[in-house]
Design goal:
single chain; Rossmann fold; alpha/beta
């Protein structure tokens, strides 16, 4: 698709950096801290020398979090020259510029862990099914793929789902499990994304407000005779798909 070559060439300056409202270094550090809260707990028990691949690694903030946590076998790839250059400027050297999709397609039982943060929403349904099958084949026995993606059940989901012109598909917890299982994964768990404000006073207020709002959303579902099981209201969700 022609739009991809245009939008991904300078993705940071036209989207992620523009939307953040902060400078590149501050954004990098903020993303790193968020990944430490959101992803690192899911890797508990993973050997420090595990082969970890961050597909579409962007500025390398997740790789930096992995590096600081002691993971020595983590590498990443991104198609955007601007993003790769930014990663290197932030001291992340384990990043290469290239087509991560083709790279994954060429691998067989190569990775212990494959990470895809904010990436699977960028593919059409046909492309996503093919990608998930390729990811499944690229993992070693017992391997795991971890994705973060917008949650279509989330409150004001269009703010996140439609806030990026390059997004192509949207999932909720149920459809995420459906497509991953159909593509050959043996076990699929979905978790709500971690919400956090770094200012402690604002974070306390946010937690209190969210508890009240979540209760109200569950009442709405109850009123429509629907179960709240496997329904999350957070803007993002984390998918953990195991081989």
């Amino acid at each position: 698709m022609k739009y991809r070559s245009t939008l991904y060439a300078n993705y940071h300056s036209t989207q992620s950096g523009r939307a953040s409202g902060t400078d590149a270094a501050a954004l990098f550090q903020r993303e790193k801290r968020q990944f430490a809260r959101e992803v690192l707990p899911l890797l508990k028990g993973t050997p420090s020398n595990a082969v970890i691949f961050d597909m579409g690694c962007g500025s390398g903030s997740l790789l930096k979090a992995l590096q600081e946590a002691g993971f020595t076998g983590a590498t990443g790839m991104d198609i955007s020259p601007e993003q790769v250059q930014m990663a290197r400027s932030m001291g992340v050297e384990q990043v290469t510029e290239g087509d991560a999709l083709q790279y994954v397609k060429d691998q067989t039982t190569a990775f212990d862990v494959l990470l895809g943060m904010d990436i699977i929403e960028h593919f059409t349904k046909d492309e996503l099914v093919e990608l998930l099958q390729d990811i499944r084949n690229s993992l070693k026995p017992g391997g795991v793929a971890i994705f973060r993606t917008p949650n279509l059940d989330g409150v004001f989901s269009t703010v996140f789902a439609n806030g990026d012109f390059t997004h192509e598909n949207y999932l909720n917890a149920s459809s995420a499990q459906q497509v991953c299982l159909a593509c050959g994964f043996n076990r699929v768990q979905v978790w709500p994304g971690v919400m956090h404000i770094e200012n402690p006073v604002k974070e306390l207020l946010r937690k209190c407000l969210w508890a009240a709002l979540r209760f109200r959303f569950k009442l709405w579902l109850f009123a429509t005779a629907r179960s709240t099981k496997n329904v999350y209201f957070e803007p993002n969700m984390i998918i953990v798909a195991s081989v």
